[in-house]
Amino acid sequence: MDLMANMSSAMEHMSSKTNQRVFDHILVWGTRLVTFLVPLFFLATTFEPFEFNKQLVLLALTSILFALWVVRVVTGRGTTWLKSPLNYLVLAWFVVYVVSTVISVDPITSILGFYGRFNGGLASILSYVLYYLLVRESVKDDQSFKWLLSAWISALGLGALILGLQLLGVRLFGGLDFAQGASFSPLGRSLNAVVLALTSMAPLALFLSRQSKSMVVRTLSLIAYLVVLAIVFMVDYQLGWVGLIVGSVVWLGLIFWRNEAVGFKWTILPSLALLLALVAWPLVTTQFTGLQVPAEVNLSMKASFEIAAQNAKASPILGSGPETFIYGFSKFRPENFNDSDFWAYRFDKAASELAQTLGTVGCLGLAVYVALLLFGLYLAWRVLKQSSHEHWYLAGAVVASYVVLVVGNVFYFTNTILALALWLNLGLLTVLAAKNSRQISLQHSPRASFLFSFGLAIVVLLAIVICFGVGRVFMADVAYAKAQSLATRLNTLDQAQASFAKAVSLNPYRDTYRIGLAQVYLAMANREANKPAPKDETARKAQVDLLQQQIRFSIDAANSATNLAPESVANWEALGSIYRGTALFARDAEEWVIKSFSKAISLEDKNPALHTELGKAYLVSASRRKASLGEAEAAVKTKLQTEITDLTAKALEKFDQAIKLKANYTPAHFNQALAYEVQDKFDEAIKKLESMKVFNPRDIDVLFELGSLYFNKADYSKAEVAFKNIVSLVPNHAQAHYRLSLVYQKLNDKVKAIQQLEKVLELQPTNQDIKKELDSLRAAVNEPAPAAGDTAPKK
Questions:
Q1: What number of other Cβ atoms are within 10 A of residue 272's Cβ?
Q2: Which end of the chain is less crowded, N or C, counting CB atoms within 10 A of the terminal residue's CB?
Q3: What integer best gives the mean pLDDT of the chain?
């Protein structure tokens, strides 16, 4: 019996060992797959092809692999855990993000990431923490270390090669519209981030090009290094030169510090890179290559830290929440920002990851993040201090790569590829610096066994939930991208509405989807309103009911977006625009237009466009009251006149505020002239428009309004000049031709008046009113009408 029991125990032990080896292989190769796949992964079916898909793949794969690691620990009744203080800093960093997300001004954005960027939300932070743990667990020896580096260098090298070919005019993805630009690379849309990631990879490629036992790996690594040099030279971005200089200086400095004879094999390439950077950085290398590289628009470093500091002052400990920098930007944007060429942009990212962290996760978040980066440098120093370390050159390459990324955090914000590079290097440094490990046994500790078993159930459940959620989020964005395409054509608005509704149903937490749904409902309402009214009373009522339903759905969808993200200026701006679009059909729409833009201004009071939009809302309301003034009774007329005066004064106040914020903001000046017109101050309106005409003599709106005012003041010669200027600039401007006809009628030149009306009829052949007016003028000069079927007069 004892023999049988021992044999059974031995077989069980062998089976357990086999299972452990299987799990180990899955974890090791799974981590390599993540390292290789995520940088290169993109899809054309979603609205944003790069970051969105990289984030989803990273989150899904790391969740699955981490769940498998927990299964391995439980089934193997224990594991070995590398001891490092960095583990506690990583945990503290994650906890800070969790708490900051809970109290965030926009928890949904803080979880999912800002739409269009996606990186930096709690979901992506979770995936980076899991990736860091997987890197630690998958690197057990020299071979696995080099395999992981090979996966990373292969991915970035391939991405760099594709970018290089794109820059040279070779289009590898001809069927994809977004891949036709010279700067396309599967590594990401931001070329700054791409060159920074490539320069951080260069020291690692240098190591494998000299140290790998495989000739193929050495050759490919050398090619990757040289391609990086070529990319930095062709792109000529400042961050590329910074990364190249920092990586080369650190590597050469470490070689000098080691003070041993290494020959040229470790120094020739970094010396060449350093020399290239020092010589080429002051030059504009694109003048030599003739390449057209797109400029990347980012917030200035000074403005980034100023806004971050103001936002941190308002929420000092934990900030406004991960990925909510755009809200701080709206509140604290400098007034002189309106003098820049990019004043209309709303920047959702600071120029520096440190400023981004300070503004969104507060002083505590910045302190933990900086401590994490600094401790990584401490690990680097500790590894290199061991001068007899058998992997010293490997450690030197990892350290050089890590220092480039730390510097990059100061001068740029992170996206998926940069964050992945950072956590890969931190994981590798932890492995290199680990002096001892802790054996966790579940066999002798019932409590530990219980906790891991209970944790296994939770982790597996969470992994399933995450994968299910990733699938829904992906399908929602596919539907949203399809809807955006369909919404550009009137005949596919119904399909667009269905796709928007599907996106909202699959992912009800994205306010962007709801705004899109609201806009397509409004477009459908406008399409319905432009249809001829049916003669049948029942059909006419059905048309009105449908129109009202579409308007209601549009408003409800936009309102639901503001409920999801009440601090979003863009949502309130969109809601105001939608209410304004329904003003012809809804009586109380004007009031809600004013409320919506007022709310937007309370969130972004230094934006001249918002003040102008609110002023226009006041002005439209005043103009409508003035239009109904003539038919009103005496008592009502007095009330209307008071309201007109009050609303016009409010409109002028808003236009004045917009001009104070941006002196050359043309819409504010133009609407100011319209407000003077409502006040019957025609001379002031003309003076304002004439001053605008001096600066922009080709502004059609200014010319048309100026011509109309001249006409109303019976200054027909000036009106003629104004309208003739319009038709010379826009020959098919029907309204200008019609106004010219009226001018000529006043000047008693009926022949020219007829010619202008004939031009209007060419442009609007079904306009019965123009036909009647033209027939009346022809009768007055005894000119016969054209033959039936003619659409133009006989010359």
A1: 14
A2: C
A3: 88
Structure tokens at 761: 């009829």
- Which of 525, 644, 515 minimizes the C-alpha distance to 585? 525
Contact call for residues 298 and 349 (beta carbons, < 8 A) = yes
- 144: three-class secondary structure by DSSP: helix
Q: Other CB atoms closer than 10 Å to residue 774's CB: what's the count?
A: 23
Return d(Cα 760, Cα 753) in angstroms, integer: 11
To the nearest whole percent, how much of the chain has pLDDT over 70? 91
CA-CA distance, 57 to 143, in Å (whole number)?
A: 26
Q: Which two tokens stand for residue 513?
A: 């989807």
pLDDT for residue 61 is more than 60: yes
- Tokens for 457, please give them: 């159930």
DSSP 585: T
**Shortest CA distance to 408 belongs to which of 196, 161, 659, 595?**
196
- Which residues lie across from 79 on neighbouring strands? 440
Mean pLDDT, range 341-368, rounded to an integer: 94
Cα-flanking dihedrals φ and ψ of residue 80, to 5°? -105, 130
Two structure tokens written together for 519: 């806009």
Query: Strand (E) positions, 395-470?
Result: 437-441
Residue 121's pLDDT is 95
CB within 8 Å of 101: residues ≥ 6 apart:
107, 110, 111, 122, 321, 322
- Distance from C-alpha of 64 to C-alpha of 15, rounded to nearest angstrom: 23
Amino acid identity of residue 561, one-letter, is: A
Q: Which bin fits 263, alpha (ψ -120 to 50), beta or left (φ > 0)? A: left
Distance CA 332, CA 625 (A): 37
What per-residue confidence (pLDDT) applies to 786? 52
The whole-angstrom distance between residue 385's C-alpha and the CA centroid of its chain comes to 43
Burial class (CB in 10 A: 0-12, 13-18, 19+), 458: exposed
The span from the CA of 538 to the CA of 224, in Å, is 72
Cβ contacts of 130 within 8 Å, gap of 6 or more: 62, 63, 65, 66
Backbone CA torsion sign across 564, 566, 570, 571: positive
Is-contact 728 715, C-beta < 8 A?
A: no
pLDDT tens column, 427-480: 999 998 887 766 666 666 666 666 666 767 788 888 999 999 999 999 999 999
The whole model's pTM is what?
0.89
Only one residue has tokens 């001829």, namely: 532
CA distance 754 to 792: 11
Please list, in sequence order, all residues whose beta carbon lies within 8 angstroms of the beta carbon of residue 140, skipping any fewer than 6 positions away.
28
- Residue indicated by tokens 């002051």: 282
pLDDT digits (tens, 9 = 90+) for 669-703: 999 999 999 998 999 999 999 898 888 888 899 99
Q: Which residues contact 231 (CB under 8 A, 6 or more apart)?
A: 160, 163, 164, 167, 195, 198, 240
- Please tell me the total number of residues recorded for the chain in this structure: 795
Mean pLDDT, rounded, for 50-75: 91
Rounded CA-CA distance 566/550 in Å is 23
How far is it, in rounded angstroms, from Cα 372 to Cα 364?
Answer: 12
CA angle 785, 790, 792 (to 5 degrees): 80
pLDDT at 505: 96
pLDDT band at 255 (very low <50, low <70, confident <90, very high): confident
DSSP 8-state assignment for residue 166: H
